[in-house]
Write a structure and sequence with these properties.
Blueprint (H helix, E strand, L loop, with lengths): L1 H23 L5 H6 L1 H10 L1 H17 L5 H11 L2 H25 L2 H7 L1 H14 L1 H9 L5 H8 L6 H23 L14 H28 L2
Helix pairs in contact: 3-4, 4-6, 5-6, 5-11, 6-10, 6-11, 8-9, 9-11, 9-12
Length: about 230
Amino acid sequence: MRHRLLLLVLIVLITSASLIALWAGGWLDFATVKGHHKQLEALVKTWPLPSAMVFFVCFVLATGLSVPVATGLSLLAGSLFGFTEALLLVSFASTIGATLAMLLARYVLRDVVEKHWPRLVARTNRGLTRDGLLYLLALRLAPAPPFFVVNLLMGLTRISARRFFIVSQLGMLPIDLVFVNAGRALAKVDSPSDVLSTDIMLALTLASLLPLVLRYFIRRRLHTVMP
C-alpha cells in the first residue's frame, strides 16, 4: 500500500513538473496548441477514453498548480471532444483543480499569498463575511477576476472545501459552457480573448451581480418581516 502511494505521489510530481516546464517553455501557448490540433484530434479518435483521462488529469493538475492555461484547455476540449463530454471534463476538472489550489494556498502557500496580495486577502474576507457564499458565486460568474487568483485568495478564508467546490461548480459553469462551445469552431478563434465578445462580457458581468442583488432583497425582506 505504501509503495502504491509513493508511486502515485511520484507520478503526480513528475506530471506537475512537466506541465510547468511545458507552460514555461511556451508549449501550452494557445497558438502552439492550435498548430498541433490535427495531431491531437487524430490521437483522440484513436484512443478516445485514454485521451479523455489524460486530458482530465492534466487539466486538474494545471488548475491545481495555478498555471494560467484553463481557458486554452477549455477551448481545446470543445474542439477535441463532443460538446457534452467536453463540458463534463472541463467543468469537473476545473472545479477539482480549483479546490486543490485553494487547499494548497490554505496549508502551504498562506504566507506567500498574504504577502503578495494583502489588500485582496482583506477584501475577500470582508466580502465573505458580508455576503457569505453569494460573494464567491459573484466572483465565479464575473469574467474579470482571474480564476486562479480567486482560488488562492479563498484558501485564506474560513470557507470549507465542500462549499467552495459546490459554489465553484455552479459559478464556473456558464463560462465553461461559453469556451467549450467556442472550441467547436477553434479554426476561427485566433486567441482566447476573441471568445469573450462585448455582449458575452456584459452578460457575464450582469450575471455576476445577481447573487449580490439577491442578497440585498433577501435582507430587505427579512428586515420587513422581522423589524
